[in-house]
Amino acid sequence: MGIPVSRRVGHDGARRIPAVNPQHFRNVLGRYATGVVAVTAIDPETGEPRGLAVNSFTSVSLDPPLVSFCVARTSTSWPRLKAATTLCVNVLADHQRQVCDRLAAKGGDKFGGLSWALSPGGAPVLDGALAWIDCTVDQEHPAGDHVIVVARVTGLDRHDDGGPLVFFRGAYGGFHP
């Protein structure tokens, strides 16, 4: 990898910030471990369960209770999910790698063979998930090639015990305290 080209910033142009190579950006940020969640809902048009895998999930506020996650602008699942009345964020367990892979795939029956039940808000809670969080979309913010979704929490609870599914340096693993 060569030396990045830098550009001048600031009012006087004295400070230089190196240009960011996208692959280098991914490699460096991949050193930050993240949990993995599945965002699920019932499609209001078809009545079928829908979902997608997300590793950019975080709590935002206690009052009001808010969470956020990021979705690629190119996602074909997100428009169907956000049309639903309630979303459910499922905190995936370390044994749910196949669930993550299925929900991250494009097209097909993502819920075929998956066991789930409805949350109190009416969205799918995946069997084996560590926790579930019912929420409604509060705001969406465009952010580069993604959309930051801020969602208002309407209900939540722990579900199963175990360790979380963790994403680190391009691979999945677990964490056992």
Automatic annotation (TrEMBL):
Residues 29-174 form the Flavin reductase like domain. Keywords: Oxidoreductase. It comes from Microbispora bryophytorum subsp. camponoti. It comes from the Bacteria. The keyword Oxidoreductase applies. Belongs to the non-flavoprotein flavin reductase family. The lineage of its organism: Bacteria, Bacillati, Actinomycetota, Actinomycetes, Streptosporangiales. This is Flavin reductase family protein.
